[in-house]
Amino acid sequence: MVSLRADPWTPEYGMGFDVASDEEPAARVDAFVETNEWSAALAPAVASPCPVWFVDGVRRVELRVLGSDDGRRVPGLFGAYAVGSVRADGRASFGEHRVFRSVILAGGVMPPAVEVRVGPSRLSFEPATDPGTEPDRPLWRLQQQMRAAEAGLAAGAAAEPGSLVLVDGPLTFRDPTLAPVVGVIKRSSQQYLEPEQDALVGRLRPGERTPLFGIGDPEEPVRRYAWYARVAVLPGPWHDRAGIVRCEVRVGVGRDAAVTLADRVSALLPFFAGRGTDARTPQNLIPVAALEGWLRHRMGNHAIVRRALVAELAGQEG
Amino acid sequence: MDEVSEPVGMVLGTEDATPLTFWVGVAPDAYLSGIVQDARARHEGASFDTDVFLIDRGILPVETAVAAQVVVTRFEPEIFVPPLPGLVAYRARGKDRDEALYFDQMQRRIPAGLSRDGEPVFLDLDFLDGSRGAHVNVSGVSGVATKTTYALFLLYALFHSPGLGGAAPNTKAIVFNVKGEDLMWLDRGNRRLSQADRADYERLGLPAGAFESVALWAPARPGTGGTALPQVESRAEGVSAYYWTVREFVREKYLRFLFAEADDERSQIGDLVARVETYLDRDAEDDPEHDATVLLDGVPVRDFDSLCELIKANVEDEHSPWRGRLSDGTVAAFIRRLDAGRFRMGHLIWGRDAEDASHHRIDWEGAQVTVVDIHGLHDRAKRFVTGVVLKRLFEHKERMGRREPLHFVVLDELNRYAPREGWSPIKEVLLDVAERGRSLGMILIGAEQTASEVERRIIANSAFRVVGRLDTAEAARSEYGFLPAITRARASILKPGSMILQQPHIPIPLQVRFPFPSWATRAEEAGDVGGRDAFAPFEAD
């Protein structure tokens, strides 16, 4: 008989569990880097309190543009992104944050730097280009810039001894540092485990985790240690993958350090589980949700920035 | 004290800033004072009520914002433009504060208390002494509102600050003691005055001590015969007994004050009282053998009882001209009230057994502050004493025909003497004081629990309105329309010692705190006469 279970995310955000049912594991996965025993969940004890940093970024397209260079047209955009952190050490407070603005064109065409006045402040859009020509390349470039800024901020936070740094989303691998930064991924979009290991994921209880598994590109050594953990148990009509996040650390931190990190993070996550009112409950952790709102606000009023940009472009025309 | 204004925050741009009121974001570690109408604090970034628990557990990061609503007191020049968001807000100190509160425009001023930043607040003497206005009205719940104490503080400030200048020594005050014997110790310093209280007085520019020149009067004890003794519990010496004589009663027409409860103006008893007063005065001859009594038909009226019997006989006699054509019903009502009155206050009118009567007539010129104790008297006797004293003083002022020297009258329970409804001879005198006292130099510092029950014109003629703790329902009445809504709400939680003061110059009522009395209010507190000696150790350095 067919059973129906609900997904807690609001539909605009898609599903927290977003894996195609017939998909084969795409990457190289080594399920036995920690243990061969996948029959029971690991239930780490809550570690002694330490400062936890949550690092996240937000981005926004202010205005899409079409650049032309000697008759060649390329897509582009004015964008803004902000990265920041929340430090939770018994008291949650906003840490350092930075706001960036970019003007990006595709096709390797470098736009000029643009500066606009909005009220008493000046907004400087730094020029960048992406060699690709597809229409979504400028947005992808903006995303990469944001991820890089996030990584920089995370590395800075990780420099504090004894602190735990959680970055929202997968880790970037360009960052060569060995900082013990943990990526927390809200959405499952890929099938990593074989069915016999994957069965454990649905049985996890809050604070518990699966054993570590290694992820790498096919035919390459493992680059990340990953594990699944449950943020919250949702009573009622929800499916068994609701409330599951995947966490990952770089292999470079070492296997033993990765195990320690996995234990600490997994035990900690339920404390920060997202509110029921969040569109991506419960995976969107409360400090992260608050940080995103705060950072969006720091980027300024979208309508005002957009109007200033349009006025600036109109002025150039004349 | 730093006399330079310091920045404490900025004008908010998220709330409308208007010319008359605006919000100021308060910088961390700063606090605002002065005419801050309201203050608020909130979590920025929290959207649900339950967020506060998450914040407490250190899960949800937020920022705490504190803002204060500021009400503008003054524009120079008078152009009504709003402050722009982001402008720096300063806490006014020194000269800036004086200008904000119009103290710079007060030629003569007396301290009226301390504002919440501990700085003195002044009131403009021009509006108190009759030059441009007069009278003070104090409202508030009995016991908590400290109305009388504040009225006395104002008197103390008046007599001990340089505001009055050369007029101070001749300025007099009459204070009616209506409750307890609190005011019978004004001439003694307060032992319980702390060092902090003393500092308050110093900030106000006042010495901390007792009233220097005080005469205490208590009603004559009933049934002592011959020698009049004051009826007072807590204190044996320094109190004079007061009574009036039959002759004064007749000549000064005091009979009406025996009928002083509020009455329908159409009642004919008033006519009968006036007739009787006139005939008494006309028919009575001074007793050549005793200056306290009169002769009627050649027979001496020995005492007040005899006088009442004579009055009774005359009005009951259908052929007596005293009675006129008034109905039996009116006469019966008259006699009923005459009997009731004489029973309650007969001991205050003495006849032949009066010795040295002039020493027992309340003399308000003898000391700067004259306390008339009426607290132990029956209601009718209270009205009689109050009515007689006020009438005598008013007539005295009328005869003088000029404003100075000033006479201040402190009277609590105004609602009893000048009720909103009905007519009474005391109300008439009080209305005269309220309306003409300004030019005659007779200043009323009146108090009552509820201004809504007091004759409107008396309240309306008061230049200064003071409010202590108010009953919530009372605060909602139109009599307190001068209080902004938030101040009104605050009035219902005011602590003893805090008052809200409205004065003509300042468009917004100010909350002031006045210091603990430096004069004794009961025997246990009483230090030495004058109050200074007890503090000699402190003054030495």
* CATH A-level architecture of the largest domain in chain B: 3-Layer(aba) Sandwich
Which chains share the greatest interface?
A: A-B, 18 and 11 residues
Q: Main sheet of chain B: which strands, in order across?
A: 12-11-18-9-19-20-8-21-22-23
Tell me the distance between the termini of chain A: 69 Å
CATH superfamily of the largest domain in chain B: P-loop containing nucleotide triphosphate hydrolases
Choose one word for the global shape of chain A. Answer: globular
Give the count of structural domains of chain A: 1
Write the layout of secondary structure elements.
The complex is a heterodimer of chains A (318) and B (541).
Chain A (H helix, E strand, L loop, with lengths): L27 E3 L21 E18 L2 E17 L3 E14 L8 E5 L2 E9 L7 H22 L5 E5 L12 E5 L9 H9 L9 E4 L7 E7 L13 E7 L4 H14 L17 H13 L3 H16 L1
Parallel strand pairs in A: 2-7, 4-6, 7-8
Antiparallel strand pairs in A: 1-9, 2-3, 3-4, 5-6, 8-11, 9-10, 10-11
Chain B lengths: L5 E6 L9 E6 L9 E9 L6 H6 L6 E9 L16 E4 L2 H7 L8 E6 L5 E5 L11 E4 L7 H14 L11 E6 L10 E3 L4 H9 L10 E6 L19 E4 L1 E2 H6 L17 H15 E3 L7 E3 L2 E2 L3 H13 L11 H18 L3 E2 L18 E5 L5 H22 L6 E5 L2 H4 L7 H16 L1 E7 L7 H5 L3 E4 L4 H4 L9 H7 L6 E5 L7 E4 L12 E4 L6 H4 L2
Helix pairs in contact in B: 7-8, 8-9, 9-11
